[in-house]
Amino acid sequence: MPLLPAxxxxxxxxxxxxxxxxxxxxxxxxxxxxxVDEVDLDSATEEDPLTLDPTQDPSLSGLRxxxxxxxxSVSTHKPSCGVDALRNLNPCQxxxxxxxxxxxxxxxxxxxxxxxxxxxxLDFFLDESYTPTKMQFWGGTGMYDLVxxxxxxxxxxRGWVDVDLDGVGVGGKAELRAFVVQVRVLENHQNxxxxxxxxxxxxxxxxxxxxxxxxxxxxxxxxxxGVEGSGGVGMEEPDWMQDPEIR
Length: 247
Hints:
The protein is α+β, with helices and mostly antiparallel strands. It contains four helices and eleven strands; from the N terminus they run H-H-E-E-H-E-E-E-H-E-E-E-E-E-E. It has helices at residues 5-16, 28-38, 83-87, 124-127; strands spanning 63-65, 70-74, 95-96, 103-115, 117-123, 132-140, 147-153, 158-162, 176-188, 196-197, 199-205. Strand 6 and strand 7 (147-153) form a beta hairpin. The protein is globular, with a radius of gyration of 26 Å. It comes from Imshaugia aleurites.
């Protein structure tokens, strides 16, 4: 039976369809990295940064990032998507969980610290169903006395999510004194199982080191104690390094 014109056109369209020659699918993360490499650094914005380096953010003037003073751990993670990827300043890298909810990130400081700002970097455009929509933040002196101090809910976040510390500190101050900070991801977009978090940063006040003793040289070039060259400079412990308090 001769083919009808419509059937002939259908066969041609199938014959003209592109075929898969066995090439592997393009990695979306590698494509993202190529895009980032091609963009001029001057075009970066706060909503779409090319780096998560806090020293490049003028809004953080007077604050010091203290995450390096703590040990970090996560409940689960995919290969190459653990703590190292989470703490990397490249927004193309991220922590990806690999287990049941809630997904836990625990930050344990070696000494009591006074925290004035916490922020988490999320990107719904890149992560979609991996994007958290409900997170809880807990703090305490150890793993067995953690207390929830903030809960965040959001839809399609893109950029830094600030944790509200108002009223957390003594006397209603916007500060948290703790040894341990824990982030709990409870829900993801569209009920996604695993999660993506691209950055977490913790800040304290950047109080400059104060001089407790100032060397005052006299006309003979001697220090305050009368010994030449003995004028020393003492250092006072900054406020973000606090001793434990018993309440």
